[in-house]
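Title: Prediction job returns without error message
Component: structure pipeline
Severity: low
Priority: P3
Assignee: unassigned

Description:
Job completed but the reporter wants confirmation the result is attached to the right record. Sequence as submitted:
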Amino acid sequence: MSDSPRELGARIAARRRARRLSQPELAATAHVSLSMLRAIERGARSPSDATLEALADALDVDGTQLRTGYLGTERRVHSALPELSAVIAGYDIPQGKPTRHPDELADAVSTAVQWRLGAKYGRIAAVIPSVLGDAIRYVHTAPASEHAEAARLLASAARTADAIAYKYGANDLSARLIDVLRWAAARSADPLVEGVAAYVRTETFFAARAHAVGLAALEQAIERTPAPTGRTEAAARGALHMRAAVIAGRAGDIGAADTHIDSARRLAEQVGREGTYLGTAFGPDSVRAHEVSLAVSLGPEHVDRALAVATAWKPPASMPAERRSGMYIELARAQDWAGLHRDAFESLRVARAAAPQHTREHPWAREVAIGLRRQARADAESLTQFAEWIGAV
């Protein structure tokens, strides 16, 4: 079921007011006429996809947070994937100078990283082929004094590009982007960046269901990371332990899973506060989110572990949207196993509110929605609308 023009206009107006923007300010930022914006907000006119995307960008949200069932983000991502494939075809071959100054490139990469953490995949897709291409060219042309920084920028750009490839099921492209990330990490001569590459590489083991070898790779990476003497070093090692716990759970190795989550918890206490370190969120809240993920990875017989964490703790709004959404999707799966079907549906709705595209593309969110609808659980009309949105019908 699509939104009426009045519903859509009211949602845009509410987002505008939340951002403390006047109608003239939003119109100017989105490059649409003031008369058009006024007509849209009062429900007299429905925006085109291009206008909706312009308004979403100006409001710093994804189009799906304005229009239910909006597919523009998917089109943007799928059109970017072939471009990304072409950009990295010869990543190890010099291809001329970048179009951006190094400072401009650093700003562009930093912005894209923030979009990744916020699950704003459409915005990433619109710029990442160009940014990644410049990052590759910069690595090959940077003077010796800038080699390490150029490699770090390329590693961040490749990771951000991988986010949309992996989330949208382009596993082969994702693996190639991870190869670029690992190549850049090695050139950075920074063991912390190499740790990030090992963290992201785990996606290939998840996709292949090669959990045991993925756990071995992460444990080797943990051994290579610097001693956790500072906050960044502790966060880097802690993030690897978090991911090792989850993949150990999927490998059925409960002992290793518990050992790694305990290590992550201790390092989170050392870090002291939640934050983003080297592009990865880490801290006490991230560890709790991974405790839910670990319990779900271990299977239905461990559902009480997930429910206990969720009962005692809720992810704060300051946690990156993608991670909050992921936690609620995992929780929905646990609640469904436990027969808490209304709670499971509510968790899916919270996940969608946090990060619509992440939820829409997550196979477990779709799986739970299909199961709930098949059993006619929760509110039938709302569930049907949600199932249609997520592609479960």
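Comment from assignee: result matches the submitted record. The CA atoms of residues 117 and 320 lie 5 Å apart.
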